[in-house]
Amino acid sequence: MGANVVTDTNVLLNLATPVVDGRSQAPSGADPFKTLLTACDVHVHTSVLAELTDATGSEDLLSAAADLVLQAAHHLTKHDVDAQLTEPLNYGLDRGESECIWLANELPADLFITDEFNTINYLFVTLALDDRNILFTTPHILCSLVTHELLPVEYVDAALTYYVETKGWDAQYVAQWRTHYLRE
User: Fold this and answer.
1) Could you state, in chain order, the average pLDDT of each consecutive group of 10 residues for the chain (184 residues)?
2) Domain boundaries defined on the chain
3) Alpha-carbon distance 91 to 27, whole Å?
4) Which of 120, 148, 107 is nearest to 2 (CA)?
5) Within 13 A of 62's CA, how many CA atoms are on the CB side?
6) What is the SS3 assignment for 54?
7) pTM score, two decimals?
8) d(CA 12, CA 7)
9) What is the pLDDT of residue 84?
10) Residue 152 burial (CB < 10 Å; 0-12/13-18/19+)?
């Protein structure tokens, strides 16, 4: 793929979660987090690292996923935009999301990946991004990695089911990506 990607914290956590989840419902046989890091040049705002650090320190799945992402932080290109962004965007987005959007607009980013698709914030992210940035969600990037033959179809199909069942992702939204990319 080789794309320049800007991502927010939740995307990285969601891609790392099945890798660290030892439960039987977790998909196995691939590593979507590592695949994204090797297929794309992933850029993050330094606030992403702070949010990941805040998520560590407990014995839960979120903490394990955050630990995994922090262990691979040397594969992330980090940027600080605090001097440029004095307050969050006026779209109801939090500061971290605003900083990542600002970063995507400043860089020659090909993709901005977010997991705001379950909320009205998805529309606000769309409004805040420059037209040259392509908005992706985690289901979309997973399916895209299949079309580039970087992840097996079977793994992504199982992962999408896992996310619907464990993360409460919108089943209709995920079904549309399955139909479009995995069932052609």
Assistant:
1) 90 96 95 97 94 94 97 95 56 75 87 80 73 85 95 96 95 93 78
2) 4-133
3) 35
4) 148
5) 12
6) helix
7) 0.90
8) 7
9) 57
10) middle
The dotted CATH code for 4-133 is: 3.40.50.1010
The pLDDT of residue 130 is 79
Structure tokens at 59: 């014995």
Calculate the dihedral angle through the C-alpha atoms of 99, 103, 105, 107, rounding to the nearest 10 degrees: 180
Looking at beta carbons, which pairs linking 89-94 to residues 24 or more positions away fall under 8 Å? 89/124, 89/128, 91/121, 91/124, 91/125, 91/127, 91/128, 92/120, 92/121, 92/124, 93/121, 93/124, 93/125, 93/128
Contact between 3 and 135 (Cβ < 8 Å): no
Whole-angstrom distance, CA of residue 7 vs CA of residue 177: 19
78-86: list long-range contacts, CB under 8 Å, 24+ apart. 78/43, 78/44, 78/45, 78/46, 78/49, 79/43, 79/44, 79/45, 79/46, 79/103, 79/107, 80/45, 80/46, 81/45, 81/106
Token pair for 22: 């030892």
